[in-house]
Design the sequence.
């Protein structure tokens, strides 16, 4: 077992403890022990970062194989939501993101090394496009998680189950944060597309056309969601369905063909 595997194993264990600590006291009268949750979450993220550095930079170029990218995405989301947790109540989000990151770290132990997906790290256009695309995806996934949280709080308030939301933030606060995050992610997605068309030659080639089309469709969905909210007052389940649709399109754009190439056709 190499250093990266050791980091992944202990990151999984730390994520599991953090997830369990949150879930076991999620509806407790005094709420979860956030200090304990974030302590083990931070330990897990440090180990996750150490392991990610090993497999991402194993060669001269960055190894952007699909498992590595998913691991990096989960790390960025964990770091972001954990930072939110220092100021805002994100009790529903923490067990989801820690749980997924932990499971993926465990799966990484059993996945074969994929060395045929390098990214040329010295080209400005490529690194800028990929960076904005990666950040936009992470931000928009967080927005989708927020949309689920808004829908859950709204449902519990509608059924007058106040005990279920006593340790959750106010509905209007979460909804406001949702659309701010959604707007930021949509802007980053637009930047990644603009940079791609300006600096890259293969955005509409046969190999990348489906990625470009799906990501543009996702941008349209997210833009319509924002426009519908600010102009027509859209909220609740309509926003949830639209954000999930946008995230599904973006996931297919970024990971769909790579999953087929790296796992099914391997």
Sequence:
């Amino acid at each position: 077992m190499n250093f990266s595997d050791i980091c992944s194993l202990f990151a999984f264990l730390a994520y599991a403890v953090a997830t369990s600590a949150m879930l076991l006291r999620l509806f407790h009268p005094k709420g979860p022990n956030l200090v304990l949750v974030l302590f083990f979450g931070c330990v897990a993220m440090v180990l996750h970062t150490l392991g990610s550095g090993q497999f991402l930079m194993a060669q001269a170029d960055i190894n952007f194989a699909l498992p590595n990218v998913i691991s990096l995405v989960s790390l960025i989301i964990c770091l972001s939501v954990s930072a939110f947790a220092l100021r805002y109540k994100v009790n529903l989000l923490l067990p989801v993101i820690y749980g997924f990151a932990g499971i993926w770290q465990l799966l990484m132990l059993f996945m074969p090394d994929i060395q045929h997906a390098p990214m040329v790290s010295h080209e400005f256009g490529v690194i800028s496009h990929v960076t904005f695309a990666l950040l936009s995806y992470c931000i928009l996934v967080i927005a989708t998680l927020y949309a689920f949280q808004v829908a859950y709080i709204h449902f519990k308030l509608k059924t007058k189950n106040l005990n279920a939301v006593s340790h959750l933030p106010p509905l209007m606060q979460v909804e406001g944060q949702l659309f701010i995050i959604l707007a930021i992610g949509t802007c980053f997605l637009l930047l990644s597309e603009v940079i791609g068309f300006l600096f890259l030659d293969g955005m509409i080639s046969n190999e990348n056309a489906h990625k470009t089309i799906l990501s543009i469709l996702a941008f349209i969905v997210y833009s319509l969601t924002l426009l519908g909210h600010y102009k027509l007052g859209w909220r609740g389940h309509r926003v949830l369905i639209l954000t999930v649709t946008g995230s599904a399109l973006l996931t297919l754009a970024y990971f769909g063909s790579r999953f087929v190439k790296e796992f099914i056709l391997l």
In short: Residues 123-266 form one domain. The chain has eight helices and two strands. Helices lie at 3-24, 34-56, 66-85, 93-108, 124-158, 171-199, 209-232, 237-264. Residues 124-158 form the longest helix (35 residues).
